[in-house]
Each structure stands twice: as C-alpha cells, then as structure tokens.
Amino acid sequence: MNKKILIGFVMLLTGIIMVSQEQVIRNDTIVAKNKEVETRSVFKLVSTELPTLNVKHETKGNQVFVETILTGISFREDDNLGQKNVKMVVWIDGKKYLEVKSAAFIIKRLPAGSHQIKLEIYSLENQPVGLAKEFMVNIPK
Questions:
Q1: Gyration radius of the chain's alpha carbons
Q2: How far apart, in whole angstroms, are the C-alpha atoms of residue 104 and residue 69?
C-alpha cells in the first residue's frame, strides 16, 4: 500500500488533521481561505480492553458482601467512554436471585448451609455477554 495513503488513513482513524499555514482551527472548525469546514470525529472512543470480571466476596453471618471489578464494560448508563452498558444477574443455587447495576452489593438473609453463587453479566437487552464467575459460600448455623 502506498505510504501516503496509509498515513492518510491512519490520520483519519485517529482524528489527526494537518493544517497548513493558511488554515486556522477554531472550536473544531477549520477556517481556510475564508471558508469554514466543520470537523467531527468519525469514530467514538471505545475501550480496547477485552471485558473482564473479577470478584471478591466475604461472608459475615448470613450475609455475603460482593465486590466486582469490570473492565471494558460499564454498569453506568451515562458512560460517555463508549463502553457497553450492562447489568449483572445473581444466581443462587441455580435460581435467579436478583439483578444489579452496581459493582458492589450485599446478598442478605441466606439460609444456613453451602450455596453456589453465580454472577453473570448481561447486556441491557438481556443477552449474556460471556462473562460469569461462580463461587461457593458456607453460611453457619
């Protein structure tokens, strides 16, 4: 591929615009020889990280404190970084327990015994995104 074409394509993708001495940029507008050309980014800023889910949990009595760390996706609907907005479905012993849209939460009033907890990330359109973690907790009598 021609070097000039490749450099031009990379500049387009990254939003770099070369300005000659006859051109001035004011508020995302190029003024060139008394003509204004509005410039806008073609690509929205999107995280390049592969989505991951990390989980920490602690049991106190009949409660389980859960803290999650998501990368590459977000629970926040007002996220302006271009990340995909998601929710988390909590399963206890194979039964849907609740849906959460926060990174930390408490599972309360679990009965005594061992319980399998599964955290699964879903899109806001109820489609699994392929991230899930499972762990066991033991609630004392």
A1: 24
A2: 9
Would you call 114 exposed, middle or buried from its count of C-beta atoms within 10 A (0-12, 13-18, 19+)?
exposed
Which 3-state string (H, E, C) describes the chain?
CCHHHHHHHHHHHHCCCCCCCCEEEECCEEEECCEEEECCCCCCCCCCCCCEEEEEEEEECCEEEEEEEEECEECCCCCCCCCEEEEEEEEECCEEEEEECCCEEEECCCCCEEEEEEEEEEECCCCEEEEEEEEEEEECC
Confidence of residue 66 (pLDDT cuts 50, 70, 90): very high
Q: What is the Cα–Cα distance from 139 to 141, expressed in whole angstroms?
A: 7
Q: What is the pTM of this model?
A: 0.62
70 vs 43, 51, 90, 101, 124, CA distance in Å? 23, 7, 15, 12, 15
Res 53: pLDDT: 93
With contact defined as beta carbons under 8 Å apart, do 17 and 30 qualify?
yes
